[in-house]
Write a structure and sequence with these properties.
The chain starts with a strand and ends with a helix. It has a single domain (5-253), classed as Aldolase class I (TIM Barrel, Alpha-Beta Barrel), CATH 3.20.20. Helix 1 (16-30) packs parallel to helix 11 (238-253) and helix 7 (138-149) packs parallel to helix 9. By secondary structure, it is α/β, with parallel strands linked by helices. The protein has 11 helices and 8 strands. The longest helix is centred in the C-terminal third of the chain and has 19 residues, at 179-197. It is globular and about 45 Å long. An 8-stranded parallel barrel has the order 1-2-3-4-5-6-7-8, surrounded by 5 helices.
Length: 254
């Protein structure tokens, strides 16, 4: 069975002091939990602080983004070399990066390859907009994003990937995909991964993201092709995030 994986994407929220308090509250509840993998992805300025808080727990650390180059004249950016050995995961291709910063599938592909080259585990985000969904283009969009973002990734490296299916229309809107729809899309993603990587696809974890809450997490986590969640707003409230983690734990114990 694939180990459930819940990651909290704090986005551009929390000062360093607030990040410490949130990490401490989460760590107090999850310090002895090993059945579900958990990662916290705070803003860059809080990585050191959060890392210290979770040092004696099984909780992993993740970054929210990175550049594809090891170094250079890229003001304001963070390189994979800077993150290597410091964080476990890095979120790549989030729809907010695509929408607000113009990131293309080709650029995201270079980031994925750079992350793998430096021992980081990418959480690759894919998902369709509301307009694409309404036009019936969801599977076409997901297949293209996977094909282009994973170009050059070998089956040997593929198992280190996490895929986060996040329908853009569900992120931060309070309008999540239904568990049945989320399962259908995640099953399609696994089918595409299987066509590319063979049986390795059955070991790649696929998260659902988009308005995940303690209320809908239990049913989402019970779906066979949903292996966890990439949590946004609810990850900023310790009790809500812990409740989502415990929903994933129920799947592991069935």
């Amino acid at each position: 069975m694939r180990q459930p994986f819940i990651a909290g994407n704090w986005k551009m929220n929390k000062t360093v002091q607030e990040a410490r308090a949130l990490a401490e509250a989460i760590a107090a509840e999850l310090r002895d939990l090993h059945a579900v993998e958990v990662a916290l992805c705070p803003p860059f300025i809080s990585l050191t602080t959060v890392k210290a808080v979770i040092a004696e727990t099984p909780i992993k650390l993740g970054a929210q983004n990175m550049h594809d180059q090891d170094k250079g004249a890229f003001t304001g950016e963070i390189s994979p070399v800077m993150l290597a050995g410091w964080v476990d995961y890095v979120i790549l291709g989030h729809s907010e990066r695509r929408q607000h910063f113009g990131e293309s599938d080709a650029f995201i592909n270079r980031k994925v390859l750079a992350a793998l080259r430096h021992g980081l585990r990418p959480i690759l985000c894919i998902g369709e907009t509301l307009e694409q969904n309404d036009r019936g283009e969801t599977e076409e969009v997901l297949a293209r994003q996977l094909r282009e973002a994973l170009d050059g990734v070998s089956p040997a490296n593929a198992e280190r990937l996490v895929i986060a299916y996040e329908p853009v229309w569900a992120i931060g809107t309070g309008r999540p995909a239904t568990p049945a729809d989320a399962q259908h899309r995640c099953a399609f993603v696994r089918q595409e991964l299987r066509a590319r990587f063979g049986e390795v696809a059955d070991r790649i974890r696929i998260q659902y993201g988009g308005s995940v809450t303690p209320a809908n997490a239990p049913e989402l986590m019970q779906q066979p092709d949903i292996d966890g969640a990439l949590v946004g707003g609810a990850s900023l409230i310790a009790q809500d995030f812990v409740a989502i983690v415990r929903a994933a734990l129920q799947k592991q114990t069935l």
